[in-house]
Design goal:
Strand content of chain B: 15-25%
Structural class of chain B: alpha/beta
Radius of gyration of chain B: 19 Å
Membrane topology (chain A): Multi-pass membrane protein
Low-confidence stretches of chain B: 1-41
Order of helices and strands of chain B: HHHHEEEHEEHEHHHHEHEHEEHH
Structural class of chain A: mainly alpha
Number of strands of chain A: 0
Number of helices of chain A: 12
Strand content of chain A: under 5%
Keywords (chain A): Cell membrane, Membrane, Phosphate transport, Transmembrane, Transmembrane helix, Transport
Mean pLDDT of chain B: 83
CATH class of the largest domain in chain A: Mainly Alpha
Mean pLDDT of chain A: 87
CATH architecture of the largest domain in chain A: Orthogonal Bundle
Subcellular location (chain A): Cell membrane
Order of helices and strands of chain A: HHHHHHHHHHHH
CATH architecture of chain B: 3-Layer(aba) Sandwich
Largest sheet of chain B: 6 strands, mixed
CATH superfamily of chain B: P-loop containing nucleotide triphosphate hydrolases
Oligomer: heterodimer
Radius of gyration of chain A: 27 Å
CATH topology of the largest domain in chain A: MetI-like fold
Distance between the termini of chain B: 48 Å
CATH class of chain B: Alpha Beta
Family (chain A): Belongs to the binding-protein-dependent transport system permease family. CysTW subfamily.
Number of strands of chain B: 10
Shape of chain B: globular
Number of domains of chain A: 2
Number of domains of chain B: 1
Distance between the termini of chain A: 46 Å
Low-confidence stretches of chain A: 1-12
GO biological process, one term (chain A): phosphate ion transport
CATH superfamily of the largest domain in chain A: MetI-like
Strand order of the largest sheet of chain B: 6-7-8-3-9-10
Largest interface: A-B, 20 and 28 residues
Chain lengths: ~325, ~300
């Protein structure tokens, strides 16, 4: 017993206690090993994140040595790849925000409506059909959505609005809206369903109708989680690359016309990194400046979403 | 006061053109403003209770969860302005029976009710019954306090609001009256806009009682309202039941036999889905006629 309590100092007194000491020590080494191994796994992702941020910063800094922050953030023209060069990121931010806003305008009402229907109204049979369908939708690669936008939606928009450019923002908004829809549905439905049954019963017992219960109790109780799902979906829309590269065009326009061709930040990065711009040139380093801006934008939105979600946990119980 | 009085005695207009209006025509003048002071009911015998007006009357009620029968031919009269306690071991069907009285079991899929349950002589399971109106008249307090994650004020005002009351003045009055009735007003009157979840467990349960009173029910169903509370809070809830029974018909499910003995006028003993015995509380606890009842109340099982 003594040897268990103080394995290092205890003098072995019998064969039995010797075995206790050795197996205890071996176990300790094993525990330490596992501890280190698991910590390594955790550290890898942290290091990767830190590394990416460092690379972004170190590559973007030379760029900001040549282009002032004022020009970068206030300039209204983005033409780094041809003369005369202009490095105003506003057209790219504007294009990104148009796609984010437009797709959110499509996905939020449909997504929330679907989530409420699934969690409050739908029979289990219906839910069993709709939810897998949404998961399939979520699993479609974004390049497929881009292809659908180019060959199917674009001609349709051209038919209805002949003045529209073939590659346009509306086109991208539609496909990105459909892409982020499953995310809003599954996250919102989860928070709606986690509203305790006792709250619903309390409301029904007061003579509330289904609509009263849904709009007056369940949705407000789940509101922070729902808003967080919107924000996560929007941040996904901002970061979406393939579909918008294909659908929205490659002309950085400072415009609010959804039928104009635009370029998003992600699409610009694709254009430069897949082209033949020499690395080390100012033109090439633009992608790091753009990437850094994009990173900060999505980071802020994700932090906001996390903060809202963590507040929700205190709300009932 | 005048406004409140008008509200507390629902007219057919406020309740809508429903089957319920038949019931309301007979409704006595109990109201928040003027509670009827009853006689000393602890002395009522079973025979005397039989001659009282029966507010709720269950006749041959069977209840099924799917193919599993939870209630077997239960017939029980609940006299007006008295407290009926439902006792029995866990799983004996007493909560199920209680939840039949305001059709809360409708919310559970695959359940069947047979038999009649009459509220003021009208069958509440008739197809033309408006369940929403029924639940306004038959309030419910749950085992676990379940305030909405809203302000104290909004919790109480929820029932009146879904019933269409919008004037702030009327709502203010209802909130104050109900909180006073639930003996909570003095504790919360300065923080009505605080979240209800900041209240203690006992306060939350009294808030739930106040919330149930805000729709001006005639019947109050309580499903083990004090089971999760400490003795002090339990005593307050029991005092409250004592106060409320002057104005409401109360049906309470309880695991605590002392509680049943303290607060109720009539006690019904359930066992394995059947009503074994019902009688005046004083009689049932002192001279039970069934052996199972005696064994249960003396603590030999359950």
């Amino acid at each position: 017993m003594v040897s268990i309590a103080q394995p290092q100092s205890a003098e072995p007194q019998s064969a039995c206690s010797v075995r206790l000491v050795t197996s205890g020590a071996r176990r300790k080494v094993f525990e330490k090993l596992m501890h280190g191994l698991l910590m390594f796994c955790a550290v890898v992702s942290v290091i990767t994140t830190v590394g990416i941020v460092l690379v972004l910063l170190s590559q973007a800094l030379p760029f900001f040595g040549e282009v002032s922050l004022v020009e970068f953030f206030m300039g209204t023209e983005w033409t780094p790849l041809f003369k005369p060069q202009h490095f105003g990121i506003l057209p790219l931010i504007c294009g990104t925000m148009m796609v984010a806003a437009g797709s959110a305008a499509i996905a939020i009402p449909f997504g929330l409506g679907t989530a409420i229907y699934l969690s409050e109204y739908a029979k289990p049979v219906v839910r069993d059909v709709v939810k897998p369908a949404l998961e399939i939708l979520a699993g479609i690669p974004s390049v497929v959505f881009g292809y659908v936008a180019v060959v199917f939606i674009s001609p349709l928009i051209k038919d209805w609005f002949p003045s529209a450019a073939y590659f346009n923002a509306a086109n991208a908004c539609l496909v990105v809206g459909i892409m982020i829809l499953p995310m809003i549905v599954s996250l919102s439905e989860e928070v709606l369903r986690s509203v305790p049954r006792s709250l619903r019963e309390a409301a029904y017992a007061l003579g509330a109708t289904k609509l009263d219960v849904t709009c007056g109790v369940v949705v407000p109780a789940a509101l922070s989680g729902i808003v967080a799902s919107f924000l996560l979906a929007i941040s996904r829309a901002i970061g979406e690359t393939m579909a918008v590269t294909l659908a929205a065009g490659a002309t950085a326009h400072l415009t609010l016309n959804f039928f104009d061709s635009i370029q998003t930040m992600t699409a610009y990065i694709v254009e430069v990194s897949s082209g033949d711009i020499p690395t080390g040139s100012v033109e090439h380093s633009t992608i790091f400046a753009v990437g850094l801006t994009l990173f900060v934008m999505t980071l802020l939105i994700n932090i906001l979403a996390q903060w809202i979600l963590s507040r929700m946990r205190e709300e009932y119980e | 006061m005048v406004k409140l009085k008008k509200l507390s005695e629902p007219t057919p207009e406020t309740l809508g053109p429903l089957v319920m209006s038949e019931m309301t025509s007979e409704r006595p003048t109990t109201s928040l403003a003027a509670p009827v002071v009853g006689t000393d009911r602890s002395s009522l015998s079973a025979d005397e209770m039989r001659n009282l007006r029966q507010k709720v009357s269950a006749q041959g009620v069977d209840f099924f969860y799917g193919s599993n029968q939870a209630l077997h031919n239960v017939s029980l009269d609940m006299p007006e302005n008295l407290v009926t306690a439902l006792i029995g071991p866990s799983g004996c069907g007493k909560s199920t029976f209680l939840r039949c009285l305001n059709r809360m079991n409708d919310m559970i899929d695959d359940t069947i009710v047979r038999g009649d349950i009459l509220l003021d002589g009208v069958d509440i399971y008739k197809s033309r019954t408006d369940v929403v109106e029924l639940r306004k008249r038959v309030g419910m307090v749950f085992q676990k306090s379940n305030p909405f994650p809203k302000s104290i004020y909004d919790n109480i005002a929820y029932g009146p609001r879904v019933a269409g009351v919008k004037q702030r003045g009327v709502l203010d009055e209802i909130v104050e009256k109900c909180l006073e009735q639930a003996a909570l007003w003095d504790e919360v009157k300065d923080r009505l806009n605080d979240s209800a979840l900041q209240l203690s467990g006992g306060q939350q349960q009294r808030l739930c009682i106040a919330r149930a009173l805000a729709t001006f029910p005639d019947v109050l169903l309580m499903d083990e309202p004090a089971s999760a509370l400490d003795p002090k809070s339990t005593a307050r809830i029991e005092d409250l039941i004592f106060e409320l029974k002057n104005s409401y018909t109360i049906v309470i499910v309880t695991h605590n036999m002392q509680q049943a003995a303290r607060v109720s006028d009539q006690t019904a003993f359930f066992y394995e889905g059947s009503l074994i015995e019902v009688g005046a509380t004083t009689e049932l606890f002192t001279r039970p006629t069934q052996q199972q009842t005696e064994e249960y109340i003396t603590g030999r099982f359950g």
